[in-house]
Amino acid sequence: MAYAAACVALLAVPILAQYPEGSLYSPPISSGYGNWSAAYAKAHAFVCNLTITEKVNLTTQTGTGASYSYSLGIIPRVGFRGLALDDSPTGVRSTDYTSAFTAPLNMAMTWDRDLIYAQAYANGAEHKAKGVNIAYSPVVGPLGRSPESGRIWEGYSPDPYLSGVSFGLTVAGMNAAGTIAVGKHFVLYEQEHFRQVREWNDWHLPNATFNTTEPYSSNADDRTLHELYLWPWYDAVHDGMAAVMCSYNQLNNTQACQNNHLLNDILKGEMGFQGFIVSDDGSQHSGVLSALAGMDMTILGETSPNGELGLGISFWGPNLTQSVLNGSVPEWRLDDMATRIMAAYYYLDQDQDFPELNFAQGDLSTFGYLYPHAMVDYQQINEHVDVRDHHADIIRRVGANSIIMLKNVNNTLPLNKPKQIAIIGEDAGPSIYGPNGCSDRGCDNGTLAMGWGSGSTNFPYLIDPLAAIQARALQDRSVVQYVLDNYDTALIDSVVAQATVCLVFINCDSGEGYIEIDGNYGDRKNLTAWMRGDDLVNEVAGNCSNTVVIAHTPGPIIMEPWIEHPNVTAVLMAGLPGQESGNALVDVLYGAVNPSGKTPWTIGKQRGDYGTDVMYVANAPVPQLNFTEGLYIDYRHFDQAGIAPRFEFGFGLSYTTFSYSNLRIQPVSGASPTTASAAASSAQTTVNPSVCPRYALNASAYTFPSTISSLTDYIYPYLPRNSTFTVGPAYPSASVIATSPGTPGGAPALWDTVYTVTVSIANTGSVAGQEVAQLYLALGNGEPLRQLRGFNKTMIQAGASADVSFTVRQRDVSIWDVPSQSWVDVRTLGTAVGVSVGASSRDLRLNGTMAAVGGVGSGSAAGNYSASVTAATTSAGGPAVTEYSDGQLQVPTEYSDGQVQVPASATG
Ligand SMILES: *[C@@H]1O[C@H](CO)[C@@H](O)[C@H](O)[C@H]1NC(C)=O
Ligand SMILES: *[C@@H]1O[C@H](CO)[C@@H](O)[C@H](O)[C@H]1NC(C)=O
Ligand SMILES: *[C@@H]1O[C@H](CO)[C@@H](O)[C@H](O)[C@H]1NC(C)=O
Ligand SMILES: *[C@@H]1O[C@H](CO)[C@@H](O)[C@H](O)[C@H]1NC(C)=O
Ligand SMILES: *[C@@H]1O[C@H](CO)[C@@H](O)[C@H](O)[C@H]1NC(C)=O
Ligand SMILES: *[C@@H]1O[C@H](CO)[C@@H](O)[C@H](O)[C@H]1NC(C)=O
Ligand SMILES: *[C@@H]1O[C@H](CO)[C@@H](O)[C@H](O)[C@H]1NC(C)=O
Ligand SMILES: *[C@@H]1O[C@H](CO)[C@@H](O)[C@H](O)[C@H]1NC(C)=O
After folding, report:
1. How many angstroms is it from 719 CA to the middle of ligand 5?
2. Rounded Cα distance, 637 and 651, in Å
3. Catalytic annotation on 280?
4. Which residue has the CA at smallest separation from atom 1 of ligand 8?
5. Residues 850/829, Cβ–Cβ less than 8 Å
6. Mean pLDDT in the chain?
7. Ligand 3 mean position, distance from CA 710 (Å)
8. What confidence score (pLDDT) does residue 519 get?
9. Residue with the larger pLDDT of the pair 710 and 92
10. Does the domain made of 35-356 have the CATH classification 3.20.20.300?
11. If you measure from the C-alpha of residue 74 to the centroid of ligand 1, how many angstroms do you get, rounded to a whole number?
12. For residues 133 and 151, is the Cβ–Cβ distance under 8 A?
């Protein structure tokens, strides 16, 4: 351990390295803050014993030629078997005997911290039991700038506070179960259109007036970036997130995965992220630049200008070995990459009894080739291990507790021994193709319980609403009739005319950009129900005076065509509830569970009311997505623009009623407001960049060993056999500057509680129920009218009351001050903070204030905040130069990878 300690002692320093030609990179070398220190000590000991090619093995996935085995990090010399990677947010992707969890959207719809954690833990446990070390979940990018955005159901809510709590809890739950949760996608990945050049030019839009040449650039100002889109990442870093996936899009015309300011300065510096950064399939666009900009692990990389995934080739692998040897990438950067990956492994105790990988991703066969492209090693590739445990119970509870009741006239619900039930709509019943009939759930047949794309998983079974309602209705001897054909109006009319209650099911779907359904290229092309859903509701309501609408959707839908119809007596939104869909619905329909879900987004009256939308037609060869709305998305926009929504953010009814009283706003004694600089002090220091001892350079150590025969499409870390190489200059040659990185989650003071707010809530109805009480703060200084800064879900018996509290942390009363690059407590700016507590964002029952405090802090936060987006744009797709806000860094967007220089002259 003395060896390890010496290794660690050198490490508390990030380094600014000059590369290339004047541009500056600042990859912090992590050192293991707080509860990461033990993991870092082990990781350093492990990594410092590795050769360059062994370290490269840890950073580079072996490629599509080996999807049946450990994906990376196989190091035979030290007996390290490697690491397995897989999706996804709804369960272990593309295998069997796993659960199909609710969409993460439903976790947010519950507003229930315990249920969010419970489902995350269960999902993590299933990944671990299948042998998956690293799971690509959870999602908070997209955050939900536009309700049409295809992948919003994989995440939570466009409100950063609700998303942040949910994201942090999901990371904590998955980590606690032992799998490494990968937060994704970092960041400003807010639409599917134009995220990848190949996807949009070649597959989807061959008739466009021009082809895109790069992924779209999301251009947001620094304050918007911090207060909306980065906010949830702070939560997850604080809660122990050990891995982050960088996204497809560019920011300010620099690829997210090679954006030094974003990855090195913000994520690893300001936010104090201790884990590793991994690319998405095809989001890496360079070798050397991505390494210097802070990426630590690559999965399949794009290595052609048009973005095809190269088979058996990589920006890293042999290219990274060569780059380290020729001095393009300093070896301390490679050491730091490998250390961060191994630190995550030790942080989650994966060195202790972690199960062997026991399935082949994407292939359910019991026997097959271990290396399918090479067609060698035919053997058992699936053990079909059932990892579902008791998770169906959790899925059903999340499903039932996420259902949002939007309308319930004259106690239509819960159903009380209805004499005859009519069930109408394709969305009520099973698909004729089965629940897994379309690859990656890329169709909308039968009841909808999951969106499409890589965020999907296989259903072990799917309880559809029709089956569950029929089973329950038997208990009451109800007659049940149904029509699943949305277009057979004559039959529908005759069936509903006989019924005492009519349940009409509608849906719409969205997903990832590589799949198109009916002109919806990932992103929804509208916000209305599919398969003539609006007409279907009106058809039923026209013939049935007691019509209950149930909607399965990935986000908000427009309800104006029928919501005020007098015969529409109840409306339930059920999100995308996973395998227990019908059972969860029955729990609410029949009152076994009192509905308690609340909308995690605004339901507008028309699409244009949202003020933001997907860019469907590229505005340039490098599409420029300008976030000109700044902070004003979803309810922040509706409030600002004075637009009345149909159902506001945070809305949801119950079978009982609640009254609010006795607001108490109590400062926490001893908590003094400070200006919480994001990063700790910075100092310039010249440091010795050697992290680990150096091995003598010897060509035979880096070229393809004669003992290994190369498998087809398989990525190794070696240079070609018999190649020779030039050892590059000592790196870095210029002076190096050290700045202290932040602690995980940014400055610790951000997390200090400064106030507690307490209210009394009474259940004034006749049944027990849960209320989601919500705290909104008005921060002045150009901030939105009100912003969610607390929520608390509490079960209260009929006739009883309870005290419900919210803790307000310093970050909750702070805004991002661009000039000082720090969070500033608005109370120090002379602002008295408005406090409101209520049942939704517009049903605010109690109001008060938190006083301003004088004389502390020196924030220069603009009272005149307005979103200004001045990112360099490009009309011709040529290289753009980005000026970062701190004026310090200049990074060329395009840098032709100079690292592919195998071989030069022989010295090794
Ligand atoms: C790198 O990994 C491959 C398997 O992916 C393995 O065959 C090889 O021995 C490893 N190389 C080193 C240097 O550990
Ligand atoms: C390096 O690895 C070898 C082989 O596993 C092992 O014997 C040795 O103890 C390791 N050294 C350190 C410093 O971990
Ligand atoms: C492109 O044009 C062809 C011929 O007009 C048409 O058949 C096809 O549907 C169009 N494709 C798209 C994606 O618009
Ligand atoms: C866009 O690219 C596609 C596929 O490479 C090609 O078929 C099409 O002609 C291109 N369109 C334009 C306008 O260049
Ligand atoms: C993008 O540019 C804007 C100014 O135009 C700046 O405020 C913001 O910080 C930049 N974002 C990144 C990630 O560099
Ligand atoms: C190295 O990267 C380049 C792209 O810069 C790619 O074309 C090449 O195939 C890669 N080499 C290997 C051996 O993967
Ligand atoms: C609700 O009940 C009241 C009182 O019985 C009745 O007047 C009203 O029409 C009912 N509303 C609906 C929509 O059925
Ligand atoms: C299945 O869904 C797809 C669209 O998702 C649709 O085109 C097709 O007609 C549906 N099949 C049936 C039998 O309904």
Report:
1. 39
2. 17
3. yes
4. 445
5. no
6. 87
7. 43
8. 93
9. 92
10. yes
11. 5
12. no
Judged by average pLDDT, the poorest of 285-289, 517-521, 753-757, 795-799 is: 285-289
Which atom of ligand 6 has the smallest separation from the CA of 315?
2
Residues with CB under 6 A from ligand 3: 205-207
DSSP 717-759: SPBPTT--------S--S----BPPPPTTSSGGGGSEEEEEEE
In this predicted model, what pLDDT tens digit does every residue of 625-644 receive, in sequence order? 999 999 999 999 999 999 99
Predicted local distance difference test score (pLDDT) of residue 235: 98
- Angular region, 422: left φ>0, alpha ψ -120 to 50, beta rest: beta
- Asked: is 659-678+743-862 a CATH 2.60.40.10 domain? The reply is yes
Phi, then psi, of 43 in degrees rounded to 5: -65, -40
Residues of the chain above pLDDT 90, percent: 72
Q: Ligand 3 test: best mutation among 193, 207, 209, 617, most atoms within 8 Å of CB?
A: 207
Say if residue 391's pLDDT is above 80.
Answer: yes
Query: What's the helix, strand, coil split of the chain in %, to 5?
Result: 25, 20, 55
Q: Using a 6 Å CB cutoff, which residues line ligand 7? A: 409-410, 566, 569
H-helix or E-strand spanning residue 235: helix 231-238
Ligand 2 within 6 A of CB of 500: no
Q: Measured in angstroms, how far is the CA atom of residue 396 from the centroid of ligand 6?
A: 48
Q: Classify 244 as helix, strand or coil.
A: strand
Domain ranges (residues) in the chain: 35-356, 659-678+743-862
Same fold, 35-356 and 659-678+743-862: no
* Stretch among 199-203, 795-799, 829-833 having the lowest mean pLDDT: 199-203
Q: Which of 754, 817, 741 is nearest to 789 (CA)?
A: 754
Q: Residues 727-755: what's their mean pLDDT?
A: 66
Kindly report whether the peptide bond that precedes residue 903 is cis, defined as omega within 30 degrees of 0. Answer: yes
203 lines ligand 4 (CB under 6 A): no
Q: Which of 87, 112, 222, 280 is catalytic?
A: 280
* pTM strictly above 0.85: yes
User: Would you tell me how many other CB atoms lie within 10 Å of the CB of residue 690?
Assistant: 13
CA-to-CA distance for 770 and 94, rounded, in angstroms?
36
Strands (E), 189-322: 217-219, 243-246, 250-251, 254-255, 276-278
